Amino acid sequence: MSYTAWILITGSLVGISCGLVGVLLILRKMAMMADAISHTVLLGIVSAYLISSSLDGGSMLIGAMLAGLLTAWLVQWFESTGIHSDAAIGVVFTTLFAIGVILISTSVGNVHLDVNHALMGEISFIPWNTVDVPIAGSIPQATLLLMIITLLVIVVIALFYKEWKVTTFDPALAASLGIPVLLMHYVFMTLVSVTTVAAFDAVGAIMVVAMLITPAAAANLWTDKLITMFILSAAFGAFASCVGYGLAIWLDTSISGSMAFATGILFAISYLFGPKHGQLSKWFYKPGEI
Fold it and tell me: Rounded distance, CA 220 to CA 274, Å?
């Protein structure tokens, strides 16, 4: 497969996996948790390296998952003591991220792991770091990891679709029905964490935040149906990746940055022309008019 094809596939996988997870983040009003976890996983990655002396995908996933869970637990604990949610997220996110930056600067500065790489990523290098897979042949390591995580996200969302729906829209009803709301919350935070770190090496934290939030926010302007929102968000994420790559080649600029910018363009279009909640729809159709 060609160099360009692997970049497009990798970007699309980031868009699909983050787009699916992002729907639940938006509907649960936890968008800022995406920003927090996308940065605090840096601490998990660094810690995993310090313990294992390896940058392989398995140790990174475990470290990131634990960092994500730590972030979610600390935020929830601060909220339970009376701290406002936004303040709790701000304190936890900046503190854990700062610890990760300090550890990189002082302990792992001699390896291929630095703050700029973590924030911006470099998807153009992805096709060069490959692994041999039976039958499939040579596949970029980051792409293979994203394939696995994307499949995991789809399976988890599909298997517990009803539980996600009830716990998202009415947690009190979910608790009365015997659904473990807190457990589902931490399963979701784990899903956010592993999705984030799978995209981390390829596109960096900034694009991860864009892909987690913007396609889902755009999809929310087109429909109120959850299943349709999942499909639209994943499609928007993949489409933005392809459009962003084209923009990057045309302008000779950052691929990840262009992909993130493309999600913003999609959101602007949805904000204006979305048939359900777009601004033009509100102007042309008054309440009671259909």
Answer: 9
